[in-house]
Amino acid sequence: MAVCIAVIAKENYPLYIRSVATQNELKFHYTVHTSLDVVEEKISSVGKALGDQRELYLGLLYPTEDYKMFRKLHNSFTDVMCNPFYNPGDPIQSKAFNGVVSGMMVQTG
Amino acid sequence: MSIPDYMQCAEDHQTVLVVVQPVGIVPEDQFFRIYKRIASVRQLSIRDSQRLLFIRYRHHYLPENNEWGDFQTHRKVVGLIAVTTCSSSRDWPHTADRFHAQKEVYSSTLYDSRLLVFGLQGEIAEQSRPDMVFYPSFEECSDVERRVEDFVESIFIVLESKRLDRATDKSGDKIPLLCVPFEKKDFVGLDTDSRHYKKRSQGRMRKHVGDLCLQAGMLQDALVHYHMAVELLRAVNDFLWLGGALEGLCSASVIFHYPGGTAGKAAGCKPSVCQPADAGKRHRPGGSQNVVDFCSGYAINDVSKRRSQTFSPFMSKDEICEEIKELTQERQQLSEEEKIQRYSILSELYELIGFHRKSAFFKRVAAMQCVAPTISEPGWRACYKLLLETLPGYSLSLDPKDFSKGTHRGWAAVQMRLLHELVYASRRMGNPALSVRHLSFLLQTMLDFLSDQEKKEVTQSLENYTSKCPGGMEIITLPDGLTLPPVPFTKLPIVRSVKLLNLPVSLQPHKLKGVLEGNLSNASPFIYSPILMQSRGEERCKKIDFQWVQGDVCEVQLMVYNPMPYELRVENMGLLTSGVEFESLPAALFLPAESGLYPVTLVGVPRTAGNITVNGYHTSVFGVSSDCLLEDLVGVKASGCLVEVIPSLPRLQLSTSLPRSTHSSQATSKEELPSSVSVQLFNGELQQLTITLENIGSIDIETLELTSKNNNKGKNNKSCSVCVCCCSFFSFILSKRPLSTESVHQSDSKTLEAVLKFKYSGGAGKVEGYYRELSLGVHVNVEPSLFFTRVSTLPATSTRQCHLLLDIFNPTEHELTVSAKNNQDLVLHASECQRMAIQVDRFDFESLPQAGQQTPHLSSPKQLEEERQLAHGCQISSKLGICWSIISFRHGEASVEGVLNQLVLEHLQLAPLQWDVLLNGKPCDCDVVAECIVGDAVTLEVKLTNLSKNTVGPLALMVVPFQDYQNGVQNYDMDEAVTFIGSNIFCISTVKARDSSVCEGALMFLYTGDFYLNIRFQDDSARRGLPLAWFTLPSVHIRALDISTIKFF
């Protein structure tokens, strides 16, 4: 079901992006890129409403509970971040993370 | 089919639509002049009420759109103003027909019409007709505005009557069902009596009345009617009309709350307005219900657009997003132009709500639409323009500086795509300079994201473009004012460090000490202050502590590497400097693929003196020349870029007769010598070294100074001498330099080093107090030539001479010939030891100049003694003149200095008391046989010369004659043979220092024969404490001859 999974750095560039159909990759690039507008909107509205930025979880942009993929992905992402050899801001090149992502894609797609 | 009008806004709901059209042949400019005048009547206040009527003018309106007039009355053409020209009355009927035909087009909705006729005069013009106005020409039409007002007023009257007609509730009558065009066929055969149908008709009518009220300026009534319509229509699920009613309601609310208009939304927005927000919310279901209605594409497009535009301040962006999404649902086959328009509008809407990325996306789609393959004439220019507008959405700026710092901003994959499109569009536009600029930008900023294949492709196409249009550093300004800053290739190659290099040691300028101190004392009255030093240190951190010289080639070293997967050709690489006139000498280099750090030396010549700052470098890569400033570079280690350039100095070149050795002498020598001469010599050998100095600069050398310094590393350095003699033959323009001789005597040491320094200066640099130093190291490896293993003396027959016995050892591998002054040559084989005896005169050391006087600082007696011994040794060596030669090719001197011990020295020394014995006035010595005649008195004189510092004496000498039989028997009984005339004891009184005394006696030989005289001291008391050697008198050998024998001889 998942056709494209991307991890975006807070400076607005992709740390990781992977899609099922490689021939249509650019299209997904565009899709993910434009969807950042919504994220940005959420971030700015959170800041306004609560007055502080402590709450970093924006909630689900789309009801993906059906697939339970966020938790899995996030756990894997946390593992990547815990890697002492990973510099925050670098593109993610982790085998484990890659595996999790492809698992999600294969299982659903 | 209908065309959406994206220009509409909420206020348009309250306007009445009037179409102004030309009929027949009307010059366009004239028509638009009239149109403008007509359009100036935008609103009209109705005389007997507070109401306002707004008019919207169109000069072009599709009849298809007019058909939607029942749905929304503001889409209905209610008035027609036709403009026509008519020169003669003959044409008049024709013109009138045309006007009527035009009227026919809108006849179903038209309330009133007017015809403005220009140019017609005569009786037809005289006729007063209500719907026609005649003007003689376009110039004479002063009352057009008034006429239009009249016209509008008449429209209002019709409108008002219609409103009243519809508003009054005729419950008994059957209400006609209003339809939108596509509905008409659906309702054929519908049961018109059903309650549902009635409700629907009612609701639609309400809405229609609401529209009319709104147009007629009765806002409150309109709101009431709309509300009612909403209620009715919701009940019957008439979604399209419900949407229409809600839209009307919204518009009314907006108009009510923003009397100033919604055009400047942000300015007019009050946060407390809740009603429009509510309206908006209520509106939404209507909108989405609209979507359900598949056929209402036209309305939706239009409506959604307006809705989102109007309510953007109030609605949450999510909702608006939903709205806009509806817009994007494409249901109709639109023409390409419409598509472009639609995408542009979408983009604008997203921009409005702050969704820049989406906006950019749609703008890009619009741009691509401009050049879609289906279009016969692709609009590359428009496409390029639209693409440029998308840049901010993709967080791309065309200034490479924004990308040089920190991490990459934005979405590289998408940005790259966009840049490729820009390049392509600009190329198709026929502007190669632009494509070069974009392509260089792509290469510079996206280098990290390009794959190897892409890098190759991009550079290839860049080279293709630059072959036609070389890229430069100038700013490109587009016609619409956008400027494209230059793109310097700071990553091709990547520079890691920049280091200014000092001049070579021989060319480094030095400051004369005196001038320097003057500067320092001005800076601070204190000798030392830490605070001052600190601040000075900071200031100095950028300035480098060496100097460059005007006119000399200066070097800057860059460490570069090539990030490309293939060889990179960098041409015309040079330095960018400021502060001083600088002639950069560009270099070209080839960097291998993925090279590691690669040193590149850029050179240049400063033409004036002053402080020079190296700002950066310029390159030419792939035909794009770029100026890279150091401050823009990331991760560059620059150790300071400011250097002082001092006025020009002359240059001297040094050449030597002996080959130079490149190896630096040894690690212990602190200063690096630019050149040194290495010689291998046998001990005592002499080698001549000719140094030629040549002025290779253009500046005259005014002063030249030569100093030498010895670095002795041998254990024994007391016998080293480096003597440099210069006989100067020196012209000011070109100096041919003299010979310099160096002779080295060394006994034990293995190596010997000397440094010759030539200080020279001239020209403007000399005025500033600078000089240059040229130094030449002389490195001598000394090998032993011969050793004196033992030295001893043997007394010679004469008291003034002695034999020096030298045991000479030949440590070399060659045969060695040793010769001394007036002595035979001695041939020594390798590692052979032989003794050599040399007869030498004894030395009178006292007559030597006193060493102590020359070096008064050597105060300790030991040193004095050493010094003296050295002097003695020197003297002895020179006297001996021992030379050696190794078969025919090497020869040298040898010295005994080091090996002479005190005893030998004493033996070699001439005694301070000198005794001379004279017989008959002739001096006699050991080997000389004095002859005398038997029977004659022989005078014997003994002379004492006192060379010591003390007085000597008195002394008594006894002369004892004896005969030596040469067999070991000496006969002292000479009373019969020899008789003394007077005493046989000589008395010498006290002899003062440097004085002499003579005592005389006489004796007579009675027989012939060989006699010896032994002169002995009578008494030991006077000479006690003085060395025995001082009192050795020569023995006298006398041969007494018969007179006849002499005659015989």
From TrEMBL, chain A:
Cellular compartments annotated: Cytoplasm, Perinuclear region
Gene3D superfamilies listed in its UniProt record: 3.30.450.70
A GO cellular-component term linked to this record: perinuclear region of cytoplasm
InterPro entries, sorted: Longin-like_dom_sf (IPR011012), Sedlin (IPR006722), TRAPPC2L (IPR044760)
BP terms from Gene Ontology: endoplasmic reticulum to Golgi vesicle-mediated transport
Stored Pfam families: Sedlin_N
Domain of life: Eukaryota
Keywords on record: ER-Golgi transport, Transport
Principal cellular location given in the protein's record: cytoplasm
Signal peptide: none
Family in the record: Belongs to the TRAPP small subunits family. Sedlin subfamily.
Protein name (record): Trafficking protein particle complex subunit 2-like protein
TrEMBL record, chain B:
Main location: Golgi
Trs120/TRAPPC9 third Ig-like domain mapped to chain residues: 795-908
Keywords per UniProt: Golgi apparatus
Residue ranges of every copy of the Trs120/TRAPPC9 fourth Ig-like domain listed in the record: 930-1020
Domain Trs120/TRAPPC9 first Ig-like: 495-623
Subcellular location: Golgi apparatus
UniProt keyword annotation of Repeat present: no
Domain Trs120/TRAPPC9 N-terminal as annotated: residue spans: 186-259
An example Gene Ontology CC term for this record: trans-Golgi network
Domain (Trs120/TRAPPC9 TPR region) ranges: 313-464
Pfam families: Ig_TRAPPC9-Trs120_1st, Ig_TRAPPC9-Trs120_3rd, Ig_TRAPPC9-Trs120_4th, TPR_TRAPPC9-Trs120, TRAPPC9-Trs120
Family: Belongs to the NIBP family.
Protein name per Swiss-Prot or TrEMBL: Trafficking protein particle complex subunit 9
Species per Swiss-Prot/TrEMBL record: Oryzias sinensis (Chinese medaka)
